[in-house]
Amino acid sequence: MATLSPPLHTQAIALWRSQQQWHRSLERTTCQLKHAGRLQARYRGLEPLYDDGYQTVKNLDYYYESLGELVEHDSGPPRWFCPVDAGSPIEDAPLMLYLPGVDGMGMGLFMHHKALGRIFELRCMHVPFHDRTPFEDLVTMVEDVVRKENATSPNKPIYLLGNSFGGCLALAVAARNPHIDLILVLVNPATSYENSGIQQLLSFFSLFSDQACMAITALLNYNIDNEAHMAVSSMINGKHPLAALSRMTNNMSSFLKHSNILDKIPEDTLKWKMKLIKRAASYANYRLQSVQAEVLLLASCGDKLLPSKAEADRLQKLLPKCTIYFFDKHGHSLLLEYGVHVASIIKCTDLYRHSRRYHRVFDYIPPSATELKEVDKATRDLRFRTCPAMYSTLEDGTVVRGLAGVPQDGPVLLVGNHMLLGIELISLAAEFLRLKGVVVRGIAHPLLFPDKKRAWSEGHDFFDFLNLWGGVPMMYKSIYELLAAGEFVLLYPGGHREALHCKGEEHRLFWPSQAEFVRLAAQFNATIVPFGVVGEDDLLELLCTFEDIRNAPFGKEMMEAYSDHLKLREDVDHEVFFPGLYMKIPGRFYYQFGKPIPTKDKQDILTDKQAANDLYMHVKSEVERIISNLLEKRVEDKYRSLIPRMLYQAARGPTCEVPAFDP
């Protein structure tokens, strides 16, 4: 679990206390954001919850049918093609080159065409089965495109998505062009070919025809364990058992149904392909020390063709900028299996960018409808336990259920209180997406943006959630850029002091004395919306806290050694330390957003310290009033407890909205 950050860094305080430096900074940044901000407000043409088309392909029939047509009628040299079903990319989309496995067809990405085609200019490499181009010439072919694109747009990154054999190709190009800004996405790269059992396996079956050997290899690509796992998961998630079983059997039978493809493949194809992949692995391994590109490595732990998990560990030691995503129940043909959302993984790892340096404001892409479903799946238990009830306040002061009282257009600054561990954040962000189609950009503690080098792809964790929802580490420059871009910004002035509070401090505010956020809001005519949230005391019980540990023998020294480098606020004697707790029989979370406070006619707060402080105290008092009101009103909610809610939904369906108190 985690929490959003406190509002002030020590260096930020010094900067803001200097009026002269402040105005110079405003002038410079305003010029930079005048155009970029408007662009960001539309996310380069993508709306929140856009349709990324992921998993719209039901089975592998399309893949094998296309493969059969290419094998029978295809000829000519290697070339590039743009998938028609990928559609048109967003404005200023970076280039992605897909480098296929040793089959060379370029169709192995078909399940991801639409999702990747929305955010990349996607081109796929195609090498006909009849072609016998040497590996070095294939490297030159990719290199020519990379160098030409780099000459045209030297400040934009170029993505190489290499699958198996294509991973060797991507590494070779990166090694030969260390000065070009390349980002490699390697899927079970074949650099481990010499350590695999493929050669021994094929020599054992050498008495059979090439077609029989290729059929055996293709079947090893297929992971029956993952298909069974996905079928069971589908049934757990509410799909009919026959529908889940049908998809599994369809995928299993697709290869067998189209096995006549093997009869159309030239006889010497297998021997040539094995020679080609051996050369590719040797070439890439010899040059690994020259690779300077960022690398995202997707490794299947259930790969029966290559030792992909062990190879991922080896490559990470040799490549200076390598991040690994392990897939526990998947086989070698990772891109043809369900549950592998490549576009989403790239976004979660902060590798999606439009220039040489990643910028959390301007490079942000909103979550797709698929990603919201994935987050809902990961947080279903929390939503079931807390059943959040949202209220908002109209301009005439009327409190209503829902978010109708929150402005539809930004810039908006949402200012409120943290509950324990910031547990209210997920429901808040998800409800804004569902009810208003708005992404809430949270200002978060830097601790929540770890440089993860290894992850297991078993659903999104809290850190992935922050990246997908556009979280930004605490810096006032970031708030400035977000408001300039017309965003909805979520700020917790109490930061980690509220989220990691002690026993008896539930629903208390720990705000600093500085009033900088109201000046920021006024600078952009932003609307401030105070809000309060209660309910942690119905869900969590503290066992030990910061105070308990600090009062223990040597506790203070231990905590200082642990968290001095994480402290953001000098005005509180409270280190970043996660408390011990246990879950209670859950109650309910209640959110209320107060009456919007426009700053358009309050420009005096930019120069008048007292006016700024008055507005700051007004916002704080509104949050305290809302918290008190929710604590009083929730006792009227007959569905506050879990059992009544379960009975209500059992009678009306699990997706129905559970009533709450009358505002």
Automatic annotation (TrEMBL):
The lineage's top-level taxon is Eukaryota
Keyword hit for Transferase: yes
Q: Which UniProt keywords apply?
A: Acyltransferase, Transferase
The entry's protein name is Serine aminopeptidase S33 domain-containing protein
The record's comment on protein family reads: Belongs to the diacylglycerol acyltransferase family.
Query: What Pfam families is this protein classified in?
Result: DAGAT, Hydrolase_4
Q: Name one GO biological process term.
A: triglyceride biosynthetic process
Gene3D superfamilies found in the cross-reference section: alpha/beta hydrolase
